[in-house]
Design a protein that fits this description.
Length: about 400
């Protein structure tokens, strides 16, 4: 996995920066220059903030407040920051020795850098503080020292920048921090000093006499040499949603295509519906015209198909002919349609106004469906309702069917 690590100060304008690119098994590639020269398309991007630009502090927060927005948490440590809470972004890092560990950054400065990176196509980077990149052994403090100043890591999520010191004299802030912990009985067993510049190693014996704590020289340290998975992201909410944002970005073209396809489908469906509605109106007008041509004395035409059937039945009856809605022709066709039902299935049959109602005894449901299908194919309108007789099996039941000629 490729990793682009960028170091910048929130106090500087987002124009130039230092960076290093880790690309799998290849040798790390460091660089410095304008933001426009940064490598693109790295799978991970880390924005490393100097220790002097990040305040790592702690507070006792209610459990429900730990996940609050950064703007809300800024008011919980207003006394520690001694500034306008709205100018800071505060994020909860986890549980530390002194309570809830918090990271405080300058909101406008961070926004400038994030906007500048987003403008060149680098979005949603992980935000890290170089303090938490520094190695630390259990029971010890770690100090990165460039010969004049540095920063101190005192715990898993604790640390701070130091003031100035000399080769033979440690910084005052280090002495004060030790005195505070010694008073509470939590002093470190030793202090490991990591020189971060050539000839930056302090006089270990002189520092030990001043601090009254063992001091040892550790290996050379540089923010570029920290392991890819070192530290902890200061903006965990941003990191949590980073994968979803990237997924949404990749799915955006597919979403546009799906939206255009749905729009085309909706337009085509509306056009088809309008065409069918127009055809229906044309057919009705033709039916009305034919009915009025056949029966010019008709006062009103409400349902031309039904009125035409009734007029045709009247004409047949006047000529002494039977109609398909009469009892004898209807009972003949219905009997043929029900021929597959068991003998004695028909309990009663009644006829009134062109409607034949038949009550059936307990019959097989699949056989009943087949019989109703044949009657509908013969040109009858069939309505079915459940009878009142008890069933004799899971697939049997009584029924009442009502048959009317179309």
């Amino acid at each position: 996995m490729s990793l682009l690590r960028i170091r910048c100060s929130l106090r500087d304008a987002p124009e130039r920066c230092q960076w290093i690119l880790f690309d799998g098994a290849r040798a790390p590639m460091p660089g410095a220059g304008p933001l426009t020269q940064l490598p693109r398309h790295a799978e991970r991007v880390q924005l490393v903030i100097p220790a002097a630009d990040v305040l790592l502090t702690s507070a006792r927060l209610p459990p429900g407040a730990r996940r609050h927005a950064a703007a809300t948490l800024a008011y919980a440590i207003e006394e520690d920051t001694a500034g306008d809470p709205d100018s800071n972004t505060v994020n909860w890092l986890g549980q530390g020795d002194g309570g809830d560990a918090l990271a405080v950054l300058d909101r406008p400065g961070l926004r400038r850098w994030l906007d500048a990176l987003d403008g060149i196509g680098i979005g949603t980077p992980e935000i890290h503080c170089e303090t938490l990149f520094l190695d630390r052994a259990a029971g010890e403090w770690s100090l990165a020292w460039n010969g004049r100043e540095g920063f101190l890591r005192t715990g898993e999520l604790q640390g701070a920048a130091t003031d100035c010191g000399e080769r033979g004299r440690p910084p005052l802030s280090l002495r004060l921090a030790l005195e505070e912990t010694q008073a509470s009985g939590a002093a470190p067993d030793a202090i490991a000093v990591y020189p971060s510049a050539p000839d930056a190693a302090p006089d270990v014996e002189a520092w030990q006499r001043e601090l009254h704590v063992p001091v040892r020289l550790a290996g050379r340290w540089d923010w570029q040499s920290a392991a890819p998975h070192a530290g902890r992201s200061l903006l965990q909410e941003r990191r949590r949603w980073r994968g979803l944002n990237a997924l949404a970005e990749r799915l955006r073209p597919a979403a546009w295509i799906a939206g255009v396809a749905l729009a085309i489908h909706a337009v085509a469906l509306a056009a088809d519906w309008a065409s069918l509605a127009g055809e229906q109106r044309d057919l009705r007008r033709q039916m009305e015209a034919r009915f009025r041509a056949a029966f010019p004395d008709a006062v009103a035409v409400v349902d031309p198909a039904l009125q035409m059937r009734r007029k045709l039945a009247e004409a047949r009856h006047a000529a002494g002919l039977s109609d398909s809605g009469d009892f004898l022709p209807m009972i003949e066709v219905v009997a043929a349609g029900l021929k597959d039902l068991p003998t004695g299935s028909v309990r009663s049959a009644s006829y009134e106004n062109g409607r034949l109602t038949i009550e059936l005894g307990t019959v097989d449901e699949s056989a009943l469906r087949r019989a109703i299908g044949r009657l509908r194919q013969a040109g009858f309108d069939v309505e079915q309702s459940t009878g009142t007789a008890r069933t004799s099996g899971p697939g049997n039941r009584s029924a009442i069917i009502s048959v009317r000629a179309l």
